Each structure stands twice: as structure tokens, then as C-alpha cells.
Amino acid sequence: MSELTDKMDKAMESLKQSFATVRTGRASPDILSRVRVECYGSILPLKQVASIHVQDTSTLVVTPFDRSTINDVEKGITKADLGLNPQSDGHTLRLPIPTLTEERRKELDKVVKKMAEDARIALRNIRRDFMETTKKNKLLSEDDLKRQEHEIQKVTDHHNSLVDDLLKHKEKEIMEI
Question: Which of 41, 48, 172, 174 has the fewest CB atoms within 10 Å distance of its CB?
Fold first, then answer.
């Protein structure tokens, strides 16, 4: 059961990370977690070439560790298609976070619902794998098998309710701002 819980917890953590990358109108460094920068002859995550911090609720500041990479960082942010327009002063990049339109909020709502559904699918796949393993165990009596299946379903239901809670919270966050 602990292995089942661990795998489902990892699926939940993945969902939380996915939700963090969705822009909700507030400045959050997590928005830039998917940004890749082409510099030094390779493609690196933005966090490896620059520091990111929140200046205020609607502005992120990106400071490259090496000033010569500022143009590469700017290109990487632009290529990521986050709807952000970097403003450079030669040393740092300021990223004003624009307010979301009603249309964009609805699009983001669809995106987070799809992320939540993907997480539910992952939970169902984990449940299916553990159910199959349990059924293959010839040492279990019929009653023990039913108990195991009930426990697996109970853990799955708990994690599904967590997905629902996270989704409600994220939808509220998107629609409020």
C-alpha cells in the first residue's frame, strides 16, 4: 500500500508543478519554469543561467548570471510563448505580467481542467496496475483479495478528491484576478 500511495503522491506532485506553470495574473517565478535558453552551445533551463525574483505582484525580474547572455535569455523567454514581453535595461530583464482578459481566463480554465484530467488518468493507470498485481497474487484468499481491492480503491478515491480540490483552487485563482 505504501508503494501505491507513493506513486499516487508523485502524480499529485506532478499536477501541482503543472498548475504552477499556468499564468494567473500574479507574478510567480514558476511561470518561467519551462523556459529554455540557448547559450554556451547548449540549451539550458532559465534557472541555470539567471536568477528570477518577484519585484511586485505584477512584475518579475530576471538577472542573467553572465551579462553577455541577456539577449539569449530574452529570446528564450519570447520563444516560450508565455505572453510576456521582456524589457531589457542591459543588465536585467523586467517582465510585466499583463492582466488576463475574460477570454484568456476561459482558455486557462480549459488548460487546467485538461491537466487535472491527465492526473486522474495517471491515478487510474496506477490503480489498474496495482489491481492486476493483486489479482495475480495466488497467496491471497478471496476475502483478502477483496480487502486489498477495497483499500486500493480507497486510496485512489482519496487522491481523486485531492485532484478535485487542487482544480477548484486553481480555477478560483484564475477567475478571481
Answer: 41
Check whether domain 29-96 has CATH 3.30.1360.40, yes or no: yes
CATH number for 2-20+101-176 (one of 1.10.132.20, 1.10.3430.10, 1.20.1250.20, 1.20.210.10): it is 1.10.132.20
Cα separation, 105 vs 117, in Å, equals: 18
| pTM higher than the cut 0.90 | no
Alpha-carbon torsion angle 23, 62, 56, 95, nearest 10: -60
CB-CB contact of 60 with 97 (8 Å): yes
User: Which DSSP category does 31 fall into?
Assistant: G
Phi-psi region of 90 (alpha: psi -120 to 50; beta: other; left: phi over 0): left
